[in-house]
Amino acid sequence: MAKQEELPHWGSKGAINRAGDALRGGKLEPAQATILESWRMAHRDVINSFQSLLRARAKNLDVQVAQRLKRRSTIIDKLSRHDGMQLARMDDVAGCRLIFPSIKMLHEFRSKVHHAKFKHIRKNERDKYNYIERPSDRGYRGIHDIYEHRSKSKKGNPKCDGLLIEIQYRTSTQHAWSTAVEVVTEVTEHEPKFDRGDRRYVELFRLASEMLARTLEECPPRLFPDLSNKELYVAFEKLNGEIGVMHMLVNLVLNDWVGDHIEADHIILHIGKKHGFKLYQFDLELEASSKLLELEKEFPEDNIVLVGARNVEEVKSAFRNYFNDVRDFLGMMMRAYKMLDPETHAARMAEYGIQQ
């Protein structure tokens, strides 16, 4: 008789899917909540395994490596947007992101990862999630791979085996665009990241994506093949004149007060659509964690980020990086302006209050 496969401590995939269905319907029972959270947190070990592997390969290269665990509120949102999705098959609960200075380096690095000798299994065909060659309808560019975790150990049934992780490859230009989309999604009632709300916000970022790809990355027209560079710029400026996204991002950067006000090792930044920005500071991690749970429960729709580091300066650096991505986007857009329409570039810089 074949040995029965040992289940991980959170149970079967069926149990996870039932918890996901209950979560989608707002009827999650306490026992299911325990299963769900145990399964979600197990993805941290998957993240640690992959980020260690990727950081080792990126050593001495101009490559940024980051990781994230999907929040429960984000899982709920995704389940609600995809009625037929089974939670156990959600492939981006765990994620690692690599940011490269060029598309050429991105492709070279990814190819070496594909040929690396490890037991993790890539689940997708090479070009299935190539959003550089085929940008998404929202204008997103980048490349994703989905891996199934496989432990090096041959003994027993390692608890993380079978869990999935999404690896994202982006250039710095693509990352700056994505960050700007996320910021607008978080601080306004419009949600271009999810193609919800005022459609003009989605269209503006589609135009911006095309502008950056043509000017800074020398990509051929993908999203607007029938528009000339001049027509692309005019379309963007007309739409921005209606909804004022560039002005909003400039004001956001100009009011970046976070870095100058950090005085503790554990910081919570609360980005609310109704109340704007709030900063909470704690010397003890336990106090910060308790406040985080309290805020997540009270404001389930807001973006609430806890950052802890070894010292105050590291925390300041983390927050500055968050806002620097918006600065990068603005700077890149100004360079695109100059290349697409040199005659009006200076006037736009002055209008946005950006010094040349």
Order of helices and strands: HHEHEHEEEHHHHHEEHEHH
* Biggest sheet features: 5 strands, mixed
Note the gap between the termini.
75 Å
**Number of DSSP E strands:** 8
Which strands sit side by side, in order, in the main sheet? 1-2-5-4-3
Uncertain stretches of 5 or more adjacent residues? none
Describe, in plain words, how this protein is organized in 3D.
With 356 residues, the protein is an alpha+beta fold. The protein has a domain at 1-172: Beta Polymerase, domain 2 (2-Layer Sandwich). 51% of the residues lie in helices and 14% in strands. It is built from twelve helices and eight strands. It has helices at residues 13-25, 30-58, 72-81, 103-114, 172-187, 199-216, 229-243, 245-254, 258-261, 285-298, 312-340, 342-352, and strands at residues 64-69, 94-100, 121-122, 143-148, 164-171, 266-272, 276-282, 303-308. The protein has a five-stranded mixed beta sheet. β6 (266-272) and β7 form a beta hairpin. α1 crosses α2 and α6 packs antiparallel against α7. The longest helix is centred in the first third of the chain and has 29 residues, at 30-58. The protein starts with 12 loop residues before the first helix and ends with a helix. The relative contact order is 0.09.
